[in-house]
Amino acid sequence: MAAYDPENIFAKILMGEIPSHKLYEDDDTFAFLDIMPRTEGHALVITKEPAADLFGITPEGLGKLMAVVQALAPKIKKAVGADGVLIQQFNGAAAGQTVFHLHVHIVPIKEGVPVKPHAGDMADPDDLKATAEKIRAVLAA
Fold first, then answer.
1. How many domains is the chain built from?
2. Sheet containing strand 22-25, strands side by side
């Protein structure tokens, strides 16, 4: 189990020190768009519990995190007109984890549209803003 660093970038997003394109928030979780999206609508759902990875969270916290992933994924899929959804979660640098704060990726997939590499290029902020607005409209309906 990795030690949790309270200065990680997602902790700073939770504290409001770094801006994000927020999609959803409750007492236990926070969801926002990935700034290096693999596809349109690529979102991250993070726990507010200080856990570096899957092995550092309580079972209750994990249940709350996954319930939000399950609720948001089909709505994000609808908002961007995707055909499917890839759910990913990395544990440890060797597995591809780049931010050591437990998070789950919701990656909408459109048939025939290539998926960009993990931790690739940063998206245009205006594109992210427009995508966030589309998703928030579906979430509010």
1. 1
2. 22-25, 29-33, 43-47, 103-109, 84-88
Q: Render each residue's pLDDT in the chain as its tens digit; 141 residues.
A: 678 999 999 999 999 999 999 999 999 999 999 999 999 999 999 999 999 999 999 999 999 999 999 999 999 999 999 999 999 999 999 999 999 999 999 999 999 999 998 877 899 999 999 999 999 999 999
3-state helix, strand, coil in the chain (%, to 5): 35, 20, 45
Which residues make beta-bridge pairs with 55?
none
Whether 103 is a known active-site residue: answer yes
Within 13 Å and on the Cβ side, how many CA atoms surround 30?
19
* Residue 1 belongs to some domain of the structure: no
Domain limits for position 52: 9-140
Q: How far apart are the first and last CA of the chain?
A: 40
Marked catalytic residue, from 21, 42, 103, 105: 103
Q: What is the pTM of this model?
A: 0.96
